[in-house]
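Section 5: illustrative case.
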């Protein structure tokens, strides 16, 4: 039954072809042609196209092209450094690397140690060169070169009947002394309190012992006698320590006034008394005292007795 259907459809299809090929003028009636529908396949998932990048903004107009060409500016000369402002009257001048000046004052010397109760003080002096080397705003090294005198005294009284004899002995030692100390001071101050401390070395340049006798013979009157000589057994070297303090007044940028007090204590015995000969009855004394033995030696034993000195010094120093 399928065969006749095929045959009937064949002439119709042929007629349709002929009608499409025939011009429209001779055609009486167009046959209805049903187009053959193509086979529609199911859509597949297609990849979405990547989004197009946003268009770049148009570049800004180049103003340099439109502006007139400028000439390069000439470099300005370097400004001169401004002068340092002068320190105010209340401000301290700046510290300097070196300070040097002259100083001097009084020494009050005496003996320290065993058996020194009978010894008195001897007033001397010191004078010399003071030198300071800057370490920090609050610290300096202090040294110098001084000529100084130290010593002590003894006094004995002898009574024979109504007659009285007083014998005094003054011992004086002369040294060239070199201190080595550290000075600590208030920094950046026009008036500087300070403290110092350290050691010293002293070299003997001379010594003198003076014996003096005063007598009172009642109705016969009074009299005196004295003599001086080198101290037997005086040691040629002394060493010890020094502590002190004072104030420095910087009255100009380049000059200072210094006042200080100090204490020195020796570490060596100034006299080897075992080598010191006693002087007995060598002073010119009245006959009333001819039987009195006079001992002018400081001590018959070599005890540990050392110099002690209180000092009061003033000086003027220059800053470099």
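Designed sequence:
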């Amino acid at each position: 039954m399928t065969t006749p259907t095929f045959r009937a459809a064949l002439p119709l299809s042929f007629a349709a072809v002929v009608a499409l090929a025939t011009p429209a003028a001779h055609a009486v009636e167009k046959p209805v042609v049903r187009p053959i529908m193509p086979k529609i396949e199911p859509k597949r998932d297609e990849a979405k196209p990547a989004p197009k990048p946003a268009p770049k903004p148009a570049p800004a107009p180049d103003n340099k092209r439109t502006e007139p060409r400028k000439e390069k500016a000439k470099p300005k000369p370097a400004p001169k450094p401004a002068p340092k402002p002068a320190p105010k009257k209340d401000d301290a001048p700046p510290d300097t690397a070196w300070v040097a000046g002259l100083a001097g004052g009084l020494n009050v010397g005496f003996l320290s140690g065993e058996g020194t109760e009978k010894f008195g003080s001897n007033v001397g002096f010191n004078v010399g060169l003071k030198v300071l080397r800057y370490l920090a705003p609050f610290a300096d090294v202090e040294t110098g070169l001084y000529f100084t005198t130290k010593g002590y005294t003894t006094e004995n009284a002898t009574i024979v009947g109504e007659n009285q004899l007083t014998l005094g002995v003054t011992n004086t030692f002369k040294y060239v002394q070199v201190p080595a100390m550290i000075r600590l001071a208030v920094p950046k101050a026009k008036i500087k309190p300070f403290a110092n401390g350290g050691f010293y070395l002293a070299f003997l340049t001379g010594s003198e012992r003076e014996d003096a006798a005063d007598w009172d013979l009642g109705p016969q009157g009074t009299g005196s006698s004295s003599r001086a000589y080198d101290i037997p057994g005086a040691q040629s070297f002394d060493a010890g320590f020094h502590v002190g303090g004072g104030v420095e007044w910087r009255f100009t940028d380049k000059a200072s006034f210094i006042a200080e007090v100090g204490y020195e204590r020796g570490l060596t015995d100034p006299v080897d008394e075992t080598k010191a000969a006693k002087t007995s009855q060598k002073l010119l004394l009245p006959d009333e005292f001819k039987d009195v033995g006079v001992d002018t030696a400081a001590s018959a034993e070599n005890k540990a007795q050392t110099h002690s000195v209180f000092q009061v010094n003033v000086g003027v120093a220059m800053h470099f």
